[in-house]
Amino acid sequence: MSDTRDPDMRQLMEAADPDFTVVMSCVFGVNEHVTRTYIQLLDQPGSTVEELADALDRDRSNVNRALTTLLDLGLATRERRLLDSGGYVYQYMAVPLPEAKEMLKEGLDAWAEQVHSVIEEFEENR
Predict the structure, then answer these.
(1) Which of 61, 65, 106, 125 has the fewest CB atoms within 10 Å, i.e. is most exposed?
(2) Exposure string (b/e) for 29-43, b if CB count within 10 Å is 16 or more?
(3) What percent of the chain has pLDDT over 90?
(4) The Transcription regulator TrmB N-terminal domain covers which part of the protein (predicted)?
């Protein structure tokens, strides 16, 4: 999977100077759209799906999927806001960047540990 929308660890390792979106996409195993949605939430906390869809120039279903992924990863939260006209809307917030960075570091460390285990367990006399 060397596609820039869904990078893998090889792409990350081969990049001389990867940007944050590539690192985040690789470590969390998400596509670039999910990463862009997270960054947009950092810039516009409390956004609704409709606001994010407009800002990202994506349809609402794509934004909903990206938000579900971010929620599942613990990179976003949502709150229900009651509307004056009745009903409600969800507003989404990105977890603070320092917390996301820590999660990235932990994810990368866990991956490195797994690779080290594979190397150590590999039999020399195969």
Answers:
(1) 125
(2) ebbbbbbbbbbbbee
(3) 59
(4) 27-96
Assigned fold of 9-121: Arc Repressor Mutant, subunit A (1.10.10)
Structure confidence by residue, pLDDT tens digits, 55-78: 999 999 999 999 999 999 999 999
C-alpha gyration radius of the chain: 18
Per-residue pLDDT tens digits for 79-110? 999 999 999 999 999 999 999 999 999 988 98
Q: Which two tokens stand for residue 65?
A: 């999927």
Q: Which residue is it, tokens 């150590």? A: 120
In the chain, DSSP assigns E strands to 76-82, 88-94
Q: Classify the C-alpha dihedral 79-92-8-113 as positive or negative.
A: negative
Among 25, 31, 30, 70, CA closest to 49? 70
How many helical (H) and strand (E) elements, i.e. helices and strands, does the chain have?
6, 2
Beta-bridge partners for 81: 89
C-beta separation of 74 from 95 below 8 A:
yes
